[in-house]
What does this fold into?
Amino acid sequence: MRTRAVLTDEDVIRVADAAVAHARANEWNVTIAIVDDGGHLLYLRRLDGAPPISAEMAPAKARTAALGRRESKLYEDAIRQGRTAFLSAPLTAMLEGGVPIVVKGEVIGAVGVSGVKSEQDALIAQAGIAALGSAPGAD
It folds into this structure.
């Protein structure tokens, strides 16, 4: 039987707390979403002042990163470079800000952030994921 890491409730809270702390430290009003490996929403938080649309975009970015098994920015870059066929992919947010959570080469979930510049969204997601250290799913 094959076993693999999964996001626990504790992992989700650890990622969320670190992402919120990073956003607040920079005074960035965003929405943060965390999904499992199938793109199912586990966490959503819209910080005070975050644009209403960010509550739709953050989960979509997370879902894109989880299902696509790569950062959502890679889709954005491909489209900008003329690979418009990606526009027909069944993903709804092919914009920077969705970052997969990878353990031992396998995607176990993703974080999506929306509300500030795309590169700042991605930094918040990465800060959340970094809080897991090397032991996601170990709690």
Q: What stands out?
A: The chain has a mean pLDDT of 92. Residues 9-130 form a domain with the Beta-Lactamase fold (CATH 3.30.450.150).
